[in-house]
Amino acid sequence: MGPTGWPLQSDTNGNQVSIFATIPSDFLCPLTRQIFNRPVTIETGQTFERHAIVQWFDKGIRMCPITGQELESLSIPDINRVLKRLTDNWKSEHCKTLISESTCPEENLTATFVENVLSAECEMSEKLEKARHLMAIGGIDFLLHRFHGEGKDEKA
C-alpha cells in the first residue's frame, strides 16, 4: 500500500504506482474527475458525465465548461455508447488485472483492505472520493469475485 493509503501495482517500467494512476485520462469526466459511467458529448465535442453536465446546465450556464464556447442548445445528448463500452471494458479488464496480480493474501483487495483504505485518517470528503474511485475502477466487481471465489473454496 502506498503512502496515500491506496494499493500499488507495477507500471510498465516496474515502478510502483497507485491503482488509480493507471486510469486513462480520456476516461475521466473533467467536471467530476471520476471515470465515466454515462458519458455524453455536447456540441463542442467535449464529453462529460451525464449527471455533471445536467447540473452545470441546471445552473443556467450556457457555455462549455472546457472551451468556454457559448452553447446553442442545453439539451442533453444521448449516452456516448462507444465511450461507455470502452470504459466498461477497461473497468472489467482492470478488475481482472487486479485479480491476477493479487498473489499473496496481504495484497488482496478484501473487505479488510477496503476498511483500511476508507478508515484512514482523512477528511470525510476524501474518504468519499476514495470510495468513488474504488467503485469506478471495478472494486465492487473485484470484491464480489473475491468473496464468491472464497466461498467456493470454503465449501469444497
From TrEMBL:
Keywords, comma-separated and alphabetical: Transferase
Secreted found in the keyword field: no
UniProt-listed InterPro entries: RING-Ubox_PUB, Ubox_domain, Znf_RING/FYVE/PHD
Annotated TM spans: none
GO MF annotation, one: ubiquitin-protein transferase activity
Associated pathway: Protein modification; protein ubiquitination
Start and end residues of each U-box domain: 22-97
Pfam families with a match to the protein in the record: U-box
Highest taxon above the source species: Eukaryota
An individual GO BP term: protein ubiquitination
Name the UniProt record assigns to this protein: U-box domain-containing protein
